[in-house]
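Pasting as-is:
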Amino acid sequence: MHKRLEAGWFQRLAWSVLAVGSVGLLVWVPFLYVAIRRGRGADWGAFGAFALYEVGSLSLADLPAGKGDTALGLIAISCLALAVWLLLGPLFDKPTPRNAMAGAGGPWAAQTPGNPYMR
């Protein structure tokens, strides 16, 4: 069972703004949406990875300042960059054209004009 999840550019940008605008606190929400709608194992894995990142970053947020702050900042920025790249790029399927079969002529050969019984 192959479910498609199409999204236009406005929806992709809205999900990206949610992830970045919340400073990473809600980065898991778009991936939960995709996992529920499409139900693939890879989508649930992406949701689990971003949810685990969120739990880890929140647990490290109340530690006193130290030498690892630069590394944690780089991890947070790279995680947000990965999320935005996934949301704008390969996560959603491309919309199918409205006339997908119009130019192809369908599965049958092109018919010649005229009465088919008089050939």
